[in-house]
Amino acid sequence: QVQLVQSGGGAVQAGGSLRLSCAEFGYTYSINCMGWFRQAPGQEREGVAVIGSDGVTEYADSVKGRFTIAKDNAKNTLYLQMNNLKPEDTAMYYCAARLRSGRCPRIWEAFDYWGQGTQVTVSS
Q1: Rounded distance, CA 6 to CA 9, Å?
Q2: Hey, how many other C-beta atoms are within 10 angstroms of the C-beta on 53?
Q3: Considering only CA atoms, which of 113, 123, 124 is closest in space to residue 37?
């Protein structure tokens, strides 16, 4: 069993930065992949970024060069640093953990545990 507790987020103007955090509890040694997903009202859920236990990362084209996913294994915490934010980044953001081995797809259904969600609002 894994529990994920998110913090961070909030409201910022376009061009600003925010950092999301996701603290992991429970059987964290069993986690193979971690990721960030987002969903805006009326839009499909999007896999923003994922990171494997080997440190390999993958990003959605919409955030490449602006967002950075990182994991602090000593603190059992996942981060998403978001720079140069745009109004279209406005969404509810969720962290997620996947236990199954193999590659780390940016697909919500491929993950096993999710955080409670945190709102990010970017104004123009």
Answers
A1: 9
A2: 15
A3: 113
The amino acid present at 120, given as its one-letter code, is V
Sign of CA dihedral 85, 120, 69, 107: negative
| Distance in angstroms (rounded) separating the CA atoms of residues 93 and 9 | 8
Tens digits of residue pLDDT in 51-86? 999 999 999 999 999 999 999 999 999 999 999 999
Written as tens digits, the pLDDT of the chain (124 aa) is: 899 999 999 999 999 999 999 999 998 888 999 999 999 999 999 999 999 999 999 999 999 999 999 999 999 999 999 999 999 999 999 999 999 998 899 999 999 999 999 999 999 9
User: Where are the strands (E) in the chain, listed by range?
Assistant: 2-8, 10-13, 18-26, 33-39, 46-52, 57-59, 67-72, 77-82, 91-98, 113-114, 118-123
Q: Are 123 and 88 in contact (CB under 8 A)?
A: no
Paired sense of beta strands 118-123 and 91-98, if any: antiparallel
In sequence order, the β-bridge partners of residue 62 are none
